[in-house]
Amino acid sequence: MKTADPNFIGNAIPEYSNVQVMSYLIATHHEFTRNIMEEIDDLIVLAQKEVQEPPEELAELAALWKKYHRDMVMHLHDEEQILFPWIRELDHSGKNRDEVARTYTGPIKHMLEEHQHHEEEIERVKKLADQLSKKGGFIPVLARLSYKLRQLTNDLEEHMQIESELLFPRILKGN
Ligand SMILES: [Fe+2]
Ligand SMILES: [Fe+2]
Predict the structure, then answer these.
(1) Ligand 1 center to residue 97 CA distance, Å?
(2) Where does the record locate the signal sequence feature (predicted)?
């Protein structure tokens, strides 16, 4: 968890219950991710239309973005509709560690143990954002696009950290 900034809004998260952590994730990171991906969608279309002789990174971004966006929307959906309700139920059932371990099978097991946020693609998007900013940061639409991409990847890093380093280890350890 980020601790350098004493006012960081997430400082109290480790003290939250599982249900509170999930509610925080949905209200902040999930909501933010959905919204900013829509904005990025529009900016890519606009940039392709407006910028004459755009940097080659724009075409590369446009090519990978559709799938990235779709996969991320599915990921958020699956968490909110399958994984989080399961954790909520588990929390209320008062099951002990062994019972919990027996409960995570099939898709839940997969979602917990192989939880993936497509880190490689995030890295790729980050690099493309840097290049777009370097080569076309003086063009307003590219400046906005690269800035939004940066915001997305920064937010995702925090989001992934809360899930992979705090919430899921608690479940896997049966806390
Ligand atoms: Fe999430
Ligand atoms: Fe996730």
Answers:
(1) 23
(2) none
CB under 8 Å, gap of 24 or more: what pairs does 146-150 form?
A: 148/36, 148/39, 148/40, 148/43, 149/40, 149/61, 149/125, 150/126
Distance in Å, CA 51 to ligand 1 centroid: 34
Expressed in angstroms and rounded, the spacing between residue 77 Cα and the centre of ligand 2 is 10
The structure's pTM equals 0.88
What is the spatial distance between Cα 62 and Cα 59, in angstroms, rounded to a whole number?
Answer: 5
Chain centroid, CA 43 distance in Å:
19
- What does the pLDDT look like over 30-81, one tens digit per residue? 999 999 999 999 999 999 999 999 999 999 999 999 999 999 999 999 999 9
As a whole number of angstroms, the distance between CA 13 and CA 171 comes to 16
Closest ligand by atom to 31 CA = 1
